[in-house]
Design brief:
This protein is of the alpha/beta class. It folds into three domains: about 5-150 and about 170-200, Glutamine Phosphoribosylpyrophosphate, subunit 1, domain 1 (4-Layer Sandwich), CATH 3.60.20; about 205-350 and about 470-540, HUPs (Rossmann fold, 3-Layer(aba) Sandwich); about 550-620, no CATH class. It is about 40% helix and about 15% strand. The protein is built from 26 helices and 17 strands. The strands form four sheets. It has a six-stranded antiparallel β-sheet with strand order 3-4-5-6-10-11, covered by helices on one side. Strands 14-13-12-15-16 form a five-stranded parallel β-sheet, with helices on both faces. Strand 13, helix 8 and strand 14 form a beta-alpha-beta unit. Helix 6 (about 215-235) packs across helix 7 and helix 17 packs parallel to helix 18. The protein is globular and about 75 Å long. The model has no long low-confidence stretch (mean pLDDT about 95).
Length: about 650
C-alpha cells in the first residue's frame, strides 16, 4: 500500500503494526525534515497517527498544548495532531486550519478515527470487506492491499460523473470504495461505526448575520485575512515554496501576497499553449515582471496532452470530462524538476468570492424568470462566455431555448446548476443498455438535493449557488482531478490561501453585492488588487482556465492507445458505453479542427476515453507495485 503512494511521498516510509491494525505512511518531507517521521505516537504509545497534508496553525496550537502540560519530541505539525486530539477530542478538528486526511488509532480502546479537511483538499478513501477496513489517500493503495478485493466500476458513480463532472462523496466510481466526504469524521470502535460532519459550508440566513461593515472595511479585512493565509502557507515550510501564475486575478493576488510574505524573489511557474485560444502568456509575463519572480514556463501541445492522458487518469482515479488536468500534470512536472516541493495556487477564489460564469448566468436566468415573456431580459445572456470560440450564447435563438428551459423552477434548489447538469447528462446517450438499466429510476440530482442543509432555503440565491459549487465541482474536480492528483503525481504539494478557514468564514459572511456586483464577479478581490497586481489583469475579461479537448485525440497522429480503448471489444468489456454510439461520435469528430467541436462533442470524447482508460488500468489489468521492505520508521507490536 505504501509503495502505491510513492509518488505522494517519496522521501521516507514508515509502518506501525499491532494485532488489530497496520498503519503505513509515505512521506513528502516539508515540515521538520529531521524528526517528523510517521507513524507517530503520544508519550505512552497508545495513540498513533498517519496523516497527509498540513496543519498551518500548528505553531499556535503547540503553544496552547505546551501550556496544558503536553510534552513534545518533534517540531512537526503531525505531533500537534496527536496531542490536540488527546486534549480536545474531535473538537480539535474544527481548530485545525489546514488541508489534511488523518487516521488516528487508539490501541487501548481499539478505536480508529478517520477525518478529512473542510473542503476536501486531501483525499481519503476506504473499503469495508470481509470484516476488515482498508483506507488510503488513493484508491490504488486499497487495491494494493489484497488481490482478492473486488475491483468493479460503480454505474451510479459513472452516472454522477456524467452529471456533476465527478462522483460525489461518499460515492466513488468504484463499487464498494467509499470517499469520506469533506469535513467529516468516521469512527470505528468495538461499539460500532459512526460518521458525522464536523463542518459544512454555511451562509447568513439574513442581513443580521452578514458582515455589517462598509465595502472599504470589508476590503481591509479580506486583504488582511488573505495576507495571513498566504503568510502561513509561504513561511511554514522547511523547503522553498513557489507559486503558480495563470495570468488571472486569483493566482496573481496569491503571488503578490506571497512576495510580501517572503520579502524576496521566489519561483513562479506558468502554463502556455500552442493554441492561441487557450494561451494567456501576455498576462502571465506581465505579472511576472511586476513582482520580479524567477519564472519558468511549459508550452503544451495537443499531442502532449494525448500522450500523458493515460498517466493523468491513472493518477486522477476517476473519469474526467475535460482535458484541463493534463496540462496541470505537465506543469507540476516542471515544478518538481526545478527542485520545488510546494506551490501556492489561486484555487477556491471563484467558489468563495463568486467568480464563475455560472453565478452570473443564474442571476440572468432568475431576472428573466420574473418576466419570462420579456424580449429584453434574455439579451443579458449575450454578456456571458465572451472567451469561447463557440459560445453557447452566440446564437440567440438557441441560447434562449437552452437557458430558458425551466424558468418556472427559479425558486427551487438546484436551479442555478440545471443547465450544466443537463448539458453533461445529455452525454448519457452514449451509455450502453446495461449501464442505463443499472441506473434506471435513479436521479443523482434528486439524491444531491435531498442532502441539502436544513437552512439552505433561508440563504440568498447566490449563497445557494455557491454552496452547490463548493459541494460538487470544487472537491471532486477542481481540488482532485485538476488539483491534488496532478500535483502529487510529481510529489508537489499545493497550498490554497483562498481555502484558509478564516478566509472562507469571512467570504461567506459578505453581502452578495461585495462579491457579485451586478455582473462584476469577485468585485471585492478586484478592489483589493489595486496596486497589488497590474491594472491590465484587474480589467481583463474573465477567461477561465481551459485546454484543447477532443482535437487532441482525433488527429491523424493520435497515440495508439486511443484506438485500443475505443475498439468494440474494449467498449463491450467495460460495459459502460455503446460501441455503436461511440463509433458514430468518433466518426463525427475525426478530422475536424478544434474550433469546430461543440461543447458536447468535446466532453463526450474526453469522457469516453477517460472512462475506458480507468477500466483498463484499475479493473482489467491492475498490478500493484513491488512492496517496500525497508522502512525508516518501523514499530511492530505483534503477539
Amino acid at each position: 500500500m505504501a509503495a502505491s503512494l510513492r509518488h505522494r511521498g517519496p522521501d521516507e516510509f514508515g509502518v506501525y503494526r499491532d494485532s488489530n491494525v497496520g498503519l503505513a505512511h509515505a512521506r513528502l518531507s516539508i515540515i521538520d525534515l529531521s524528526t517528523g517521521q510517521q507513524p507517530l505516537c503520544n508519550e505512552n504509545g497508545s495513540l498513533w497517527v498517519v496523516f497527509n497534508g498540513e496543519i498551518f496553525n500548528y505553531v499556535e496550537l503547540r503553544a496552547e498544548l505546551l501550556a496544558l502540560g503536553h510534552v513534545f519530541r518533534t517540531q512537526s505539525d503531525t505531533e500537534v495532531i496527536v496531542h490536540a486530539f488527546e486534549a480536545w477530542g474531535e473538537r480539535a478538528f474544527n481548530r485545525f486550519n489546514g488541508q489534511y486526511a488523518i487516521a488516528l488509532w487508539h490501541s487501548e480502546t481499539r478505536t480508529l478515527t478517520l477525518v478529512r479537511d473542510r473542503v476536501g483538499v486531501r483525499p481519503l478513501f476506504f473499503m469495508e470487506h470481509a470484516g476488515r477496513v482498508y483506507f488510503g489517500s488513493e484508491v490504488k493503495a486499497i487495491f494494493a492491499a489484497d488481490a482478492g478485493l473486488p475491483r468493479e466500476i460503480d454505474p451510479v458513480g459513472i452516472d454522477e460523473t456524467f452529471t456533476f463532472w465527478s462522483s460525489l462523496a461518499p460515492r466513488s466510481v468504484f463499487r464498494g470504495v467509499v470517499e469520506l466526504p469533506p469535513g467529516s469524521v468516521r469512527v470505528y470502535s468495538p461499539g460500532g461505526v459512526e460518521e458525522h460532519a464536523f463542518w459544512e459550508p454555511s451562509f447568513p440566513a439574513g442581513e443580521q448575520d452578514s458582515f455589517s461593515g462598509t465595502i472599504e472595511e470589508a476590503e481591509t479585512e479580506v486583504l488582511q485575512a488573505l495576507q495571513n493565509a498566504t503568510n502561513l502557507r509561504m513561511l511554514r515550510a522547511d523547503v522553498p515554496v513557489g507559486s503558480y501564475l495563470s495570468g488571472g486575478l486569483d493566482s496573481s493576488l496569491v503571488a503578490a501576497l506571497g512576495l510580501r510574505a517572503k520579502g524576496e524573489r521566489f519561483r513562479t511557474f506558468s502554463l502556455r499553449f500552442e493554441h492561441a485560444e487557450f494561451d494567456e502568456t501576455g498576462f502571465q509575463r506581465e505579472m511576472q515582471k511586476f513582482i520580479g519572480s524567477d519564472h519558468a514556463e511549459v508550452v503544451v501541445s495537443q499531442r502532449e496532452i494525448a500522450e500523458v492522458f493515460p498517466d493523468v487518469i491513472e493518477h486522477s482515479e476517476r473519469p474526467i470530462l475535460r482535458t484541463a488536468p493534463a496540462p496541470m500534470f505537465l506543469l507540476s512536472r516542471l515544478v518538481r524538476s526545478a527542485g520545488i516541493k510546494v506551490v501556492l495556487t489561486g484555487e477556491g477564489a471563484d467558489e468563495m468570492f463568486a467568480g464563475y460564469d455560472i453565478f452570473r448566468e443564474a442571476k440572468v436566468r432568475r431576472f428573466w424568470a420574473r418576466q419570462p415573456n420579456s424580449e429584453s431580459r434574455p439579451r443579458l445572456l449575450e454578456r456571458l462566455y465572451p472567451y469561447l470560440a463557440r459560445s453557447p450564447v452566440a446564437q440567440q435563438a438557441m441560447a434562449r431555448k437552452f437557458f430558458g428551459r425551466g424558468l418556472e423552477r427559479a425558486h427551487l434548489p438546484g436551479f442555478s446548476h440545471e443547465p450544466r447538469w443537463q448539458g453533461a447528462a445529455a452525454l448519457k446517450r452514449l451509455f450502453s443498455e446495461r449501464q442505463q438499466q443499472l441506473t434506471q429510476g435513479i436521479s443523482v440530482v434528486d439524491q444531491l438535493l435531498a442532502r441539502l442543509p436544513r437552512d439552505f432555503s433561508s440563504w440568498s440565491s447566490l449563497a445557494q449557488d455557491q454552496y452547490l459549487e463548493i459541494r460538487t465541482l470544487l472537491p471532486g474536480y477542481i481540488l482532485s482531478s485538476q488539483g491534488d492528483r496532478m500535483l502529487m503525481a510529481h510529489s508537489v504539494e499545493g497550498r490554497f490561501p483562498f481555502l484558509d478557514a478564516e478566509v472562507m468564514r469571512l467570504a461567506s459572511s459578505l453581502p452578495d453585492s461585495y462579491k457579485l456586483k451586478v455582473f462584476d464577479e469577485k468585485y471585492i478581490l478586484k478592489r483589493i488588487g489595486r496596486g497589488i497586481v497590474p491594472e491590465a489583469i484587474l480589467t481583463r475579461k474573465k477567461q477561465p482556465y481551459r485546454a484543447p479537448d477532443a482535437a487532441c485525440f482525433v488527429a491523424a497522429d493520435a497515440p495508439a492507445w486511443v484506438g485500443d480503448v475505443t475498439s468494440p471489444d474494449s467498449l463491450t468489456a467495460a460495459g459502460v458505453f455503446s460501441p455503436k454510439a461511440v463509433a458514430q461520435l468518433l466518426h463525427k469528430c475525426h478530422g475536424r479542427q478544434g474550433s469546430q467541436f461543440s461543447n458536447a462533442d468535446n466532453m463526450a470524447v474526453v469522457g469516453v476515453l477517460s472512462t475506458q482508460l480507468l477500466y483498463r488500468q484499475f479493473v482489467q489489468t491492475y498490478r500493484p507495485p513491488r512492496p517496500i521492505t525497508e522502512f525508516s520508521t518501523r514499530v511492530d507490536r505483534l503477539p
